[in-house]
Design a protein that fits this description.
This protein has about 130 residues and is α+β, with helices and mostly antiparallel strands. Helices cover about 35% and strands about 15% of the residues. It has a three-stranded antiparallel β-sheet with strand order 1-3-2, covered by helices on one side. The radius of gyration is 17 Å and the shape is elongated.
Length: about 130
Amino acid sequence: MVFLVQTKSPIVSRLARWQIYGALSVGVQAVCRVEKLFTVAPGAFRPAPKVRSALLRLTPLAEPLVRPQEVAPLRAFVAACFSRRRKQLHNAVPGATAAGLMALGFDPKARPETLAPADFVRLLRWSQQL
């Protein structure tokens, strides 16, 4: 899938994990590889907009990080974690304890925005067993 989006739009950074990282990034990267193909200058359009655009390609992963039945729970879980963005993992992950996070190899004082999508999948699966 290919999308043309405004580069000022937070979706560009969120999808490709450039500056802003959040639930959207994690959800998309759990099932797709995201590539910024190129930037499109305002002069390519008539009338010319006041912002630049970017062409993004989302390629479904041959082996997604989540099974189809885990997509919706992952979205809800990640949204819950990011709704507490300034919290440390032991407070941001529902039901988590510092000891449990450390047993999984996570720093309980880390923040959700420091985790990779695969980390969220591991945490989701672990939290479902609590």
